[in-house]
Write a structure and sequence with these properties.
Structural class: alpha+beta
Oligomer: single chain
Distance between the termini: 45 Å
Radius of gyration: 19 Å
Number of helices: 5
Helix content: 55-70%
Number of domains: 1
């Protein structure tokens, strides 16, 4: 029953994150960007079934691969997100097509990891997936907060005598600025 609850939490958080990712949103560098990943990590780690009791080494290896995929997905997701400043100096972000490709690659890789675990006869718990997703969110939020604060510092009125401008920080795979994304 707890696995079902974890799965429902994961589905709800993924749906919320996906909807928010592809909308232009301001980035608040002062907020606690690490809080949601921390909560998800605690939920995942409180479960006793994180490692298969009969295959500890194999399940630890699968968990490590899941975490590496989560870290790589978070970094790829953050670096493919478009970040820009609005004329009022606020920093905004929005996912790109490359961000969607990172999500698809992450899902495919996670399906592959699950298939390998199933082939090894491992009992796989939803906590591993939740922990990997928490790692993705933590890395993404950290990199985006860093990118936003760096961009805000470059466009602040103290560094440019003409005040804030609409500047765009490049995102990997980005074809350039799109008019609808300038706030």
């Amino acid at each position: 029953m707890v696995g079902l609850a974890n799965a429902l939490v994961l589905v709800a958080v993924v749906a919320l994150v996906l909807v928010r990712q592809f909308r232009a949103r301001p980035i608040d560098t002062d907020r606690r960007w690490w809080l949601l990943p921390l909560i998800l990590g605690v939920i995942a780690l409180r479960e006793p079934g994180l490692l298969d009791a009969h295959h500890r080494v194999e399940s630890a290896a699968v968990l490590a691969v899941e975490l590496l995929i989560g870290l790589a997905m978070g970094a790829g997701w953050a670096w493919t997100t478009r970040v820009w400043t609005a004329p009022d100096g606020a920093v905004w972000s929005r996912g790109t097509r490359a961000s969607a490709a990172v999500w698809i690659a992450g899902v495919v890789l996670r399906i592959g990891v699950f298939a390998v675990g199933a082939a090894l006869g491992l009992h796989q718990h939803s906590s591993a997936l939740l922990l990997g997703f928490a790692a993705s969110l933590l890395v993404r939020a950290g990199i985006l907060t860093w990118r936003a604060s760096t961009l805000a510092a470059r466009t602040s009125p103290t560094t440019q005598p003409l005040g804030p401008t609409t500047r765009l920080a490049a995102a990997y795979g980005d074809g350039g600025p799109a008019g609808e994304e300038r706030a």
